[in-house]
Amino acid sequence: MGNQMQKSISDTRNQKQTSFTFEIDNFSEKKAAISSSLFGCGGCKWYVTVYPKGYYCRDHLAVILNVASPKSLRTGWKRKVSPCFVLLNQSGKELQILSTSDSLYSTQVLLVSKIFARHPDIAVDFKPKSQVVKTAYMNVLLGLIETLRKPPQSFSETELSNAHSKLRELTEAGFKLDWLKEKLGEVALKRKNAIADGSRVEEVEERINNLKVTLLDLIVELKKEKAKSAAAAKVLSFDDIV
């Protein structure tokens, strides 16, 4: 038998409510995340992910509402919704109701969700005392990731130093960012190689320019020699001799 997760989502913009039931067989035996099929609300497709052993803490049941195909959403996309989760047992009896206040779903929220999906242990030791502090640190993390998207050779020494400082700040706050530290190291190495390659390119270009100057000088000299040769080979006229 399975447990049921009944999901009610309201699109606060259009005041429309959608109900969706997600049945999970043998729920007590599950450990990994479980995702539902897609359902529509507010002109978007959504799905629910259930974490039987918690999201980034291991002592609770976590239920997360996700928007489908985030890459297809235009920049600045957002929806304000009021999700409500109802947990039922195999007999249909309500075990728990999880209601939340209005939530703003945006492209930034989706990026944060993607980070936690790929690195579920990222914030196990991060325990901020307020939502404001949590949001501030997440903005620092998103800003750092956005910075690392730049071409390595475009980084200045100051930008690279600032990136290391932000990474250190996040790590000291409790984030597990070995993967980001590795990426930053790769960027620094690629930048170093790009600078070295750029120096070699400049050196080769200088040599080519010098060769061009030498070639032009040779062409001028060749023209002079051809003129002398042509003059020497000229057949003299009668007047030239008499």
Shape: elongated
How many β-strand runs? 9
Number of helices: 5
Averaging pLDDT over every residue, what do you get? 78
Low-pLDDT ranges: none
| Percentage of residues in helical conformation | 40-55%
Profile the largest sheet.
Answer: 5 strands, antiparallel
Taken as a percent bin, the fraction of beta residues is 15-25%
Structural class category? alpha+beta
N-to-C SSE string, H for helix and E for strand = EEEEEEEEEHHHHH
Radius of gyration: 34 Å
Between the first and last Cα atoms, what is the distance in angstroms? 127 Å
Characterization of the model:
The radius of gyration is 34 Å and the shape is elongated. The model has no long low-confidence stretch (mean pLDDT 78). With 242 residues, the chain is an alpha+beta fold. The chain has a domain at 1-105. It has helices at 107-118, 131-147, 157-173, 178-232, 238-241, and strands at residues 2-11, 16-25, 34-35, 39-41, 44-51, 62-67, 78-88, 94-99, 103-106. Helix 2 (131-147) packs antiparallel against helix 3 and helix 3 (157-173) runs antiparallel to helix 4. 43% of the residues lie in helices and 25% in strands. The strands form 2 sheets. Strands 1, 2, 7, 8 and 9 form a 5-stranded antiparallel β-sheet that branches.
